[in-house]
Amino acid sequence: xxxxxxxxxxxxxxxxxxxxxxxxxxxxxxxxxxxxxxxxxxxxxxxxxxxxxxxxxxxxxxxxxxxxxxxxxxxxxxxxxxxxxxxxxxxxxxxxxxxxxxxxxxxxxxxxxxxxxxxxxxxxxxxxxxxxxxxxxxxxxxxxxxxxxxxxxxxxxxxxxxxxxxxxxxxxxxxxxxxxxxxxxxxxxxxxxxxxxxxxxxxxxxxxxxxxxxxxxxxxxxxxxxxxxxxxxxxxxxxxxxxxxxxxxxxxxxxxxxxxxxxxxxxxxxxxxxxxxxxxxxxxxxxxxxxxxxxxxxxxxxxxxxxxxxxxxxxxxxxxxxxxxxxxxxxxxxxxxxxxxxxxxxxxxxxxxxxxxxxxxxxxxxxxxxxxxxxxxxxxxxxxxxxxxxxxxxxxxxxxxxxxxxxxxxxxxxxxxxxxxxxxxxxxxxxxxxxxxxxxxxxxxxxxxxxxxxxxxxxxxxxxxxxxxxxxxxxxxxxxxxxxxx
Length: 486
Ligand code: NAD
Fold this sequence. Notes:
By secondary structure, this protein is an alpha/beta fold. Helices cover about 40% and strands about 20% of the residues.
């Protein structure tokens, strides 16, 4: 029986509620913590505390004071890295080596990056003429949006949560944030770090719960929220957008993907195989940027499929705390049922299952976890639902193409437009195609290499707006123009 409890953090206090739900370890299926669910009145209290904090010292804090707070939060995450690691691996089942190298350090890096960016941010300044010849000076200042609602998903919990919380704080906003119900752990630890770092009460509020008809919807519908930033499924984004229209509030959306990799015959073959294996199976396929459609130039198609299948077969599945493990479980029983339903659908749609397609038989505690086999399909048509719909699991369909323009057409034949990867040693072609693919992010001969200053986001169903670097500062603040007659 677990004694871990995740509480809400509202108005600078940790708050218990009368309703709680279990937080399940996906690697074993066991309940690892209990989470106090925030009801509508606690969300309203969180919004009110946030509004009040903007009228207090936080509303008058200088950029340097805010940046110093962000630096202290980053140091606080570093100091408690082992606790964050335990919570992240417990909540997601992802290999500890991955969380140690990526999720936890990126949580701290998000705060450091936006502390530095806000210190360096500059505005516009124009001198203009006036009829009397005296002239005028215009300059811009950045003002916070106000109270920002942050709603985040479960796949990279700390990384994606801090990706929004850090710039929102840097810009001087107050926050009401909800992590995914599947992964409440690291967000709660972050509230403790904020508390210890001296974030004024009410500036950061954390409320736990579900989406529709629960905490998430209460945040979205609250008229005390001035802007909403959301990462999750495209259809959830559409619902939130409808609800946010009331009050004409800005939204920033990072949504789903059905990302293509284009592999040309002139690629560095081994690197391309390794790269596509990584972009398909990393985090058990549960990254919005993962590849689910692989298009390979016909002369190397058979060889590529064989090599990719060998990679998939060799993957070590199991205990996330074993340093050899490469593939953890899916996030939940429901999500595994969804992914397995696509494994089934692929058969009905005529796929050849090159490798995988089922559930692995694991010994010990992991026999109760939500594991699934890495899977490769061939033979599906471009119109198959398995080629058009986001699965969000460790699976891709591999299809041949004959020339460059067909490759571009296939990549663009999707309702989504998040990311693409091109594998070729012909750099002229790489640059040409980078401009032709309808996505927000293109990687050439690599994948998931991120510089936090660069714009991040998708087109079509994959999102609205860009975050990252100054684009985050632009979303989380409003520019005010000041004009002085000289
Ligand atoms: P989801 O949309 O089910 O949930 C995301 C968050 O929204 C959760 O906190 C959930 O409780 C909340 N929510 C759900 N319905 C809501 C509603 N009606 N009102 C308010 N809040 C609501 O998504 P998920 O299953 O947690 O995450 C997986 C999805 O996220 C995939 O589609 C993936 O591609 C996408 N994703 C996108 C990016 C990106 O940067 N583009 C990054 C990571 C994940």
